Amino acid sequence: LRRLLEVPRATAPGPGLAEALQLLGSRPRRRGLTVVVSDLLAPQASWERPLRLLAARSEVVVVQVVDPRELALPAAGVLALVDPATGAHLTVRTTTAVRDRYAAAAADRAQAQRAAVRSAGADLVVLSTGSDWLPVLARALAVRRRTRAVRRTS
Questions:
Q1: pLDDT tens digit string along 16-36?
Q2: Quick check: 91 and 28 in contact, CB under 8 A?
Q3: Is the entire prediction scored with pTM above 0.85?
């Protein structure tokens, strides 16, 4: 983490998730652990295959960063939304029915993302921006280490 903090921040956007996974997968094979940190909001069809190919070559842990506001709409009346990728504007009345549909769609998307990561052969750790992520990450990596050790001795 210290090394990440020392790296100057890029001023231009870098490659998308799919391109980054393809780049990692094209590098010479090395034993070790690859950690992918992403919100996984890129279209699943774009990153699923490159993740599967990467996980076939090395151990992979996907750390998904989730903002609680992506999971549920607030009861805020009318919301003016902007798509950060396209700049498109949308006005939404946050009725109970709209909030329920949004929450259901978000849960379905999260389930599909979990299934895709696991089916690729990678481990998944979900971190929330709404809570302290360090204990969650430490616990997940400790559990992963113990289960890997048990698998090797079996």
A1: 899 989 888 887 766 778 899
A2: no
A3: no
